[in-house]
Design brief:
This protein has 164 residues and is an alpha+beta fold. 33% of the residues lie in helices and 31% in strands. The protein has a domain of 112 residues: Gcn5-related N-acetyltransferase (GNAT) (Aminopeptidase). The protein has five helices and seven strands. A seven-stranded mixed β-sheet has the order 1-2-3-4-5-7-6, sandwiched between helices. β2 and β3 form a beta hairpin. α1 packs across α3. The longest helix is centred in the N-terminal third of the chain and has 16 residues. It is globular, with a radius of gyration of 15 Å. 26% of the residues are buried. InterPro entries: Acyl_CoA_acyltransferase, Bact_Acetyltransf, GNAT_dom. GO terms for molecular function: acyltransferase activity, transferring groups other than amino-acyl groups.
């Protein structure tokens, strides 16, 4: 791995860069799954509000960034189990710019965000690269399937990593 790349805990001052990175990762990841019009409607303002809330909230310490020479190139975040909300850790997001795939940063982000915890996540049904990554990390398909209606009906599937 390139020695200038590292993973660290996200900080409130990362919110603006994270908002822009989030959109860039979405464009790379979902360009073939969602219409150009949908992607064009996604703005920094909404992502910025989300990141500011996450990085000021009670689970701020569960959000990490991948950095290459001072530039954010990826992120991961999770929420812990919570009575009445989540039975297990939820990996709500992990994204890495395509230019940084294959360097081990995705693994570092996953390890930082959830460690070896029992966890679950949703992944686009037509995202074999991500699904293979999760399978390598002990996740299996649960059989649950959903669609994100506000994302042009994008189908997603549930994966979980049992206690081990």
């Amino acid at each position: 791995m390139n020695h200038t790349c590292s993973v660290r805990q996200a900080a409130p001052e990362d919110a603006e860069a994270l908002a822009r990175l989030h959109l860039e990762c979405w464009r790379e990841t979902y360009a073939r799954l969602l219409s150009p019009g949908f992607m064009a409607r996604q703005g920094v303002k909404g992502r910025l509000a989300m990141w500011r809330q996450l990085l000021a909230g009670p689970h701020a310490g569960r959000h990490y960034v991948a950095v290459d020479g001072g530039t954010l190139v990826g992120f991961a975040g999770s929420f812990p189990p919570e009575d009445g909300v989540r039975e297990q850790t939820e990996l709500w997001g992990i994204y890495l710019l395509a230019s940084h795939h294959g360097r081990g940063l995705g693994q570092e982000l996953l390890d930082a965000a959830i460690g070896k915890e029992t966890a679950a996540l949703w992944v686009a049904e037509d995202n074999p690269r991500a699904q293979a990554f999760y399978r390598r990390n002990g996740f299996v398909f649960t059989g649950a399937r959903d669609t994100i209606e506000e994302w042009e009906g994008l189908p997603e599937v549930r994966m979980a990593r049992p206690a081990g």
